[in-house]
Automatic annotation (TrEMBL):
Superkingdom, taxonomy of origin: Eukaryota
Protein name: Phosphotransferase enzyme family
InterPro entries according to UniProt: AGP_Transferase, Kinase-like_dom_sf
Length: 274
């Protein structure tokens, strides 16, 4: 690697670097996967209206994967959100509405497909195979197959630990009754403020004369084609989502909310999640 590479201030990866001229990032290490690079290529080619870092190269060196991507200018939203004026928050939320509207309108290239943007499995911890072969389940064609795999993964966990299967029977009987009628939707799957990079646009104030911001979404490694309720389920994950903060209300302005589905998913997440 180039000895002039410097540590990158964006993201939470200790093994992430930026080019000396601050135009490129090199991401590598145990948390780096090919499907993140393939997701960035897909977004640039088929959904260019969604702002994401551009991928310049992806390669292996000494069995280690490297992603060379655009370094995004700006700061993580969580670092400035509390200090923003109401009009500035409105400006950011309006930009996010446009982005997520575009994502919801994106057409899945494979009919009724649930899986990664690379055409592979479902990159979510609930689909990490509990049968023991250390890989993600999927992909799946049809929502019933997606839900059946989720329930089957929970049953595999129960059986592996020799636990009573009453809860597994409950999910087998009722989960599909609640989680039905949802189409594959382009999903980021980690809509935290730290993954929203904002940069002030000094040439264009907002409608009330305050600051305006440009936005880029980063950290697409867990993205894919998920049921349309999945984005809010992930965004409302209790460890990252505080209901006593205004962000919990503002998220609902750009991410579609499915209350019953969220409640059911949080229930199975407690049983099957990490």
């Amino acid at each position: 690697m180039n000895p002039r590479l410097q540590q990158c201030p964006l993201g939470d990866y200790g093994l992430q670097d930026c080019g000396a001229e601050q135009r490129h990032c090199c991401k590598y290490g145990g948390c780096t996967n090919t499907w993140e690079g393939q997701a960035l290529v897909y977004l640039e080619r088929y959904v260019p209206e969604v702002p994401a870092p551009r991928l310049y190269a992806m390669y292996y060196d000494s069995k280690q994967l490297f992603l060379i991507m655009q370094r995004v200018s700006g700061v993580q939203l969580n670092s400035i959100w509390p200090s923003l004026a109401p009009s500035e928050k409105d400006n950011i939320v309006a930009k996010l509405q446009l982005i997520f509207d575009a994502m919801r309108k994106a057409e899945c290239p494979w009919p009724n497909f649930f899986g990664g943007l690379d055409g592979g499995g479902v990159h979510h911890y609930l689909f990490y195979n509990q049968h023991g072969d250390e890989k993600f389940l999927g992909p799946f064609f049809g929502e019933p197959a997606f839900i059946a795999a989720l329930v089957g993964n929970y049953r595999a966990l129960v059986e592996r630990n020799n636990l009573p299967d009453y809860k597994a029977r409950f999910y087998e009987k009722y989960l599909a009754r609640v989680l039905q009628g949802h189409r594959p939707t382009l999903t980021h799957r980690d809509v935290q403020q730290k993954n929203i990079i904002v940069a002030e646009n000094t040439s264009r104030p907002n409608d009330q004369g305050g600051r305006s911001f440009d936005i880029v979404l980063v950290d697409w490694e867990n993205s894919g084609w998920f049921p349309d309720f999945w984005e809010f389920f992930c965004a409302s994950y209790p460890l990252n989502f505080q209901w006593d903060e205004d962000w919990s209300w503002r998220v609902q302005e750009f991410v579609q909310v499915w209350p019953a589905e969220m409640a059911m998913m949080q229930l199975i997440d407690k049983d099957l999640g990490w």
